[in-house]
């Protein structure tokens, strides 16, 4: 479905320093797969997602969706951002319908599709509100509804639940799983949370820092559907095992970048 081959991208900072954000990243995401991407801060997760979305150019390598090379944004891919990226002056209905309007869908159909998705994300009755009148969790529900209006085959999510409180995050995780279980699509979901990566994903792509590479792909063989009992999933032994393993790997990666913090069992004070 999504094929990424040998992707490299560097930035030049304002002080003229070169930062290798991604180097030789290769990754395949299957049709209707839910792939989570986890890695230390600054390892290039957002850059990778934005490249797949066609929002940033890259230096080397190829990205294809269903065999078609990515050359820019397209209706087959929708993005949900961490900071919601809603239009502050537009109502919930207009925000959700925005992508449809851009695609020339008529007013009546726009409103109907937007209303139906607003209901799907549990915001019925909020159609006329402005984003500023909603909580962070509600704003992100609007972001998800907006992304789904165009019926994308690929949903790209950049730490979408990073800015909401823990309880809202759990509810949004359950809702996203329920939506994905019903309307299957390919999801690439970036997170800082090991727990979230395991709860949601079919596989976790673990990235290492500077330059960002795929360090390992960790399969998550927890049963599905998971939406009705995310709490139960989180209490299972396999869940605990995978999250512990991910933490081991991430801790090693952090230690590589901070030799002073490396784990040296022989030097533990008595
Ligand atoms: N526009 C830019 N100009 C210069 N450097 C950039 C730019 N965008 C990203 N970088 C650098 O590229 C590297 C990767 O950034 P990116 O945002 O993709 O990482 P990330 O893994 O998503 O980080 P985080 O987990 O903290 O959100 C970082 O070192 C970052 O500072």
TrEMBL record:
This is ATP-binding cassette domain-containing protein. Residues 2-234 form the ABC transporter domain. Keywords: ATP-binding, Nucleotide-binding, Transport. The keyword ATP-binding applies. GO terms for molecular function: ATP binding; ATP hydrolysis activity. PROSITE patterns: ABC_TRANSPORTER_1, ABC_TRANSPORTER_2. Signal peptide: none annotated. SMART domains: AAA (SM00382). The keyword Hydrolase does not apply. InterPro entries: AAA+_ATPase (IPR003593), ABC_transporter-like_ATP-bd (IPR003439), ABC_transporter-like_CS (IPR017871), ABC_transporter_ATP-bind (IPR050166), P-loop_NTPase (IPR027417). It comes from Streptomyces typhae.
């Amino acid at each position: 479905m999504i094929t990424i081959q040998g992707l490299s991208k560097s930035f030049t900072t304002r002080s003229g320093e070169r930062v290798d954000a991604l180097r030789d990243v290769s990754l395949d995401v299957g049709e209707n797969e839910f792939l989570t991407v986890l890695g230390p801060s600054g390892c290039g997760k957002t850059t990778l997602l934005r490249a797949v979305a066609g929002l940033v150019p890259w230096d080397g390598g190829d990205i294809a969706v269903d065999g078609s090379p990515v050359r820019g944004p397209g209706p087959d891919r929708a993005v949900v951002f961490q900071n919601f990226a809603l239009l502050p002056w537009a109502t919930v209905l207009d925000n959700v319908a925005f992508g449809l309007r851009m695609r020339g869908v008529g007013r009546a159909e726009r409103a109907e599709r937007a209303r139906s998705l607003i209901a799907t994300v549990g915001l019925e009755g909020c159609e006329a509100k402005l984003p500023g009148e909603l909580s962070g969790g509600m704003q992100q529900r609007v972001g998800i509804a907006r992304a789904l209006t165009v019926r994308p085959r690929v949903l790209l999510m950049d730490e979408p639940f990073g800015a909401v409180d823990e309880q809202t995050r759990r509810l949004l995780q359950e809702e996203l799983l329920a939506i994905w279980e019903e309307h299957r699509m390919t999801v690439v979901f970036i997170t800082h949370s090991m727990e979230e990566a395991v709860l949601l994903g079919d596989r976790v792509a673990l990235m290492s820092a500077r330059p960002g590479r795929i360090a390992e792909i960790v399969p998550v063989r927890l049963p599905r559907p998971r939406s009705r009992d995310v709490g139960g999933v989180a209490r299972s032994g396999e869940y605990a095992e995978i999250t512990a393993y991910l933490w081991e790997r991430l801790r090693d990666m952090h230690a590589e970048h901070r030799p002073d913090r490396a784990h040296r069992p022989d030097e533990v004070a008595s």
